[in-house]
Amino acid sequence: MRNRKDIQSLFYAAAAAGVLWLNWHLGASPWLVVTYPLALLLAFLMVLVGHNHAHLPLFYRRPWNRLASHYLAIFYGHPLVIFIPVHLQNHHKHRNTDQDWTATYKVSDGKGVRTLLAYHFHCSRQVMVGYGRIIRRLYSHRPGIFRDWASYYAVFLAVNGLFLLINPWKAFFFLILPGQLSIFFLHTINFIQHVSTDSEDDYRSSRDFVSPWWNTLLLNAGFHTVHHLHPSAHWSEYPAKHSAIAHKLDSNLIEADPFSYTFRKYLRSRR
Length: 271
Fold this sequence. Notes:
Elements: H1 7-26, H2 32-55, H3 62-76, H4 83-94, H5 113-141, H6 143-166, H7 168-194, E1 208-209, H8 212-217, H9 224-229, H10 238-245, E2 254-255, H11 258-267
Parallel strand pairs: 1-2
Helix pairs in contact: 1-2, 2-3, 2-7, 3-6, 5-6, 5-7, 6-7
């Protein structure tokens, strides 16, 4: 393991499998009112682990990282290779400007959950168009990379197909649906981190969420400014890096935690 702090990441990965096993065996049980929300939380946490793994792989050895990518994809809902062109090469390069497929300003920052849904569908459409172009280019000009990426899809589809063969309904509700909702969670967190910020200013291009408790849970995902300034840094380094630049940040873009902010601005509204 590259950094011992990722014991927390591996714990989340193990917990996701454990809760999937538990829900699968519980079936239609009253306990699902507890265990299903836990599965959704872990799906979101697996998004964060997958995101961090894409930036800085969990292990030094390539075979272990490849195995980790296959495993994380089961819970993320999509092979992690999509992070390479969409997140690493596009979002971090263009950061909420016109060429960023996930640019937030293309959706009105209105009130209500429909704003988050509008961004999710807009973002999904833009990403699939851009990602499709990349895949076609790889097929034509980089067949080796194309075959390598295709192998991730083959494993992902085989694993999901096996679960569907065993029990289609359980596979859908306990594996596929949480994975797809995790993509919505990913888009939502990106939206609240960048909406109504200044994409041209390194210190005003992101909204930071600084609650120590929430950042402990979310692998320091709240410190988004330093993530863009130091995309190859390990997530455990973010608090110190954030403290070093805190005096340069806009206080209007500092919030406690993403959940209360999202609820206050988008979920509580009736519009």
